[in-house]
Design goal:
By secondary structure, the protein is of the alpha/beta class. Helix content is 33%, strand content 16%. The chain has a 7-stranded mixed beta sheet. Strands 1-2 form a two-stranded antiparallel sheet. The longest helix is centred in the N-terminal third of the chain and has 18 residues. The radius of gyration is 21 Å and the shape is globular. The N and C termini lie far apart (50 Å).
Length: 268
């Protein structure tokens, strides 16, 4: 008997749904405007109100930001093609300092949040660590975390938000692992619910080997003091917490950044 390839079956279902959405003209659309002003765009000749934008504050059309972007291109060109290990772009130091004022802790920039995960996660997770991954954690983390298994890092999946299960897994993994990480979102992109960050802060103080890695991209700018996001709007940045987030959702810009209390992502 030939076993069904579940992965292929799932991909076929997603493809079928996507094709239906395209045929009904509710997906795979193209804006037709030569100039965008923010709230509206033109689809198939019709002016439409955009409810699908991830730009929470609409700053990408702010005249000050557009003028500054034009000036930056005039001064530096359209890109700075170099590894930060070698040399960083002129404005990065100033931007990281300004963002640090929002978080009151050091930050490091990345081209996107997803690339930030790929850069930071392999550094902060040691070979002897274990990772508990919330099953609703953003796909950008779910793509990166399994790669740690090549190094022998144990990765365990957690039913969404189940803190009782988290404690059980933590107890089991702590027998063999000095540090256990829980990967989660501040605001979850699919359900729209928020992490129980206050309860997790209690667990951080209860279990000295528990660490949190949180993607708060969807809570950024509209929540928290100075727009520092949902997580930091609830609790201070714990010394065993790494926060990763996005400039694209609320700051009218591409890019992402990560923050910890020390700014040292090696051996956090």
């Amino acid at each position: 008997m030939i076993k069904s390839n579940k992965f292929k079956d799932n991909i076929d279902q997603i493809n079928e749904i996507s094709n239906i959405a395209r045929d009904r003209k509710v997906a795979h659309l193209y804006a037709e405007d030569e100039r965008l002003e923010g709230k509206y765009f033109t689809i198939q000749g019709k002016k439409m109100l955009n409810f699908g934008s991830c730009s929470y504050l609409g700053l990408e059309t702010d005249l000050r930001l557009k003028a500054a972007a034009i000036q930056a291109i005039e001064n530096y060109g359209t890109q700075f093609s170099s590894s930060r290990t070698y040399v960083s772009f002129t404005l990065y130091k100033e931007l990281e300092k300004l963002l640090s004022n929002i978080f009151e802790h050091p930050v490091i920039l990345s081209s996107t949040t997803s690339l930030g995960h790929q850069a930071v996660i392999p550094i902060i997770i040691a070979d002897g660590d274990a990772v508990i991954l919330d099953h609703q954690a953003h796909i950008s983390m779910q793509d990166t975390v399994p790669k740690l298994q090549v190094r022998g890092v144990v990765v365990s999946l957690l039913r969404h938000g189940r803190l009782d299960e988290l404690e059980e897994k933590l107890a089991g993994l702590s027998v063999r692992h000095e540090r256990v990480w829980y990967f989660l979102d501040g605001v979850y992109s699919m359900y729209g619910d928020v992490s129980p960050i206050n309860e997790l802060n209690v667990l951080l103080n209860k279990y000295p080997n528990l660490n949190l890695y949180i993607d708060d991209a969807h809570g950024m700018s509209w929540a928290g003091r100075n727009g520092a996001g949902y997580v930091m709007g609830q609790v201070p940045l714990h010394n065993r917490m790494v926060l990763s987030t996005s400039l694209a959702k609320g700051f009218g810009s591409a890019g992402g950044y990560s923050s910890s209390r020390t700014g040292n992502f090696i051996g956090v």
